[in-house]
Amino acid sequence: MKEEWCYQVQGKLEIPYRYFAGEFLSRFFVELRDNKKILGVRCPQCAKVLFPPRSVCGRCLSSLKEWVELGKTGTLQSFTVIRYSEPTHPLPAPLAIGLIKLDGADTNMLHLIGETESSTLKAGLRLRAVFKEEREGSILDILYFKPEP
Ligand SMILES: [Zn+2]
């Protein structure tokens, strides 16, 4: 028996938008697009290398100016597998998303994991970035990370 309070209304929202990435993310996206470089910034006070790059350290509030090239490899910290497809997902299901600590960084990045079976994923797995051939200045210029052989 269906209750009235759980009636579902079908809807669709599509909201195209643009935003100014600012000084730090602009440089990050341009280096990613033009040179396949993944950049972070080092804090002069606490020495943490932060990703994504930002102007102020969230830990000690110092101004950040030192750019650091991070590795194209990293270690899987945690992950989840999405087993249904949505038009907004960048890959068809099953879709693995991981928290990845890039080599040289003290923070994690969230990104897709590809070229693997989800049953083989585990924390500690070494991963390598796979870049798009035609990059456009987006975090999805990194198609996904795949396990290192
Ligand atoms: Zn700091």
What does this structure look like?
The chain has 1 helix and 8 strands; from the N terminus they run αββββββββ. The chain is mainly beta and 149 residues long. The chain has one domain. The longest helix is centred in the first third of the chain and has 14 residues. It is globular and about 60 Å long. The model has no long low-confidence stretch (mean pLDDT 94). The structure holds zinc ion (ZN). The site of zinc ion has 8 residues, from loops.
Summary of the model, kept short:
The protein has 149 residues and is mainly beta. The protein has one helix at 22-35; strands at 38-42, 49-50, 66-70, 73-82, 95-102, 109-113, 126-131, 142-147. Bound molecules: zinc ion.
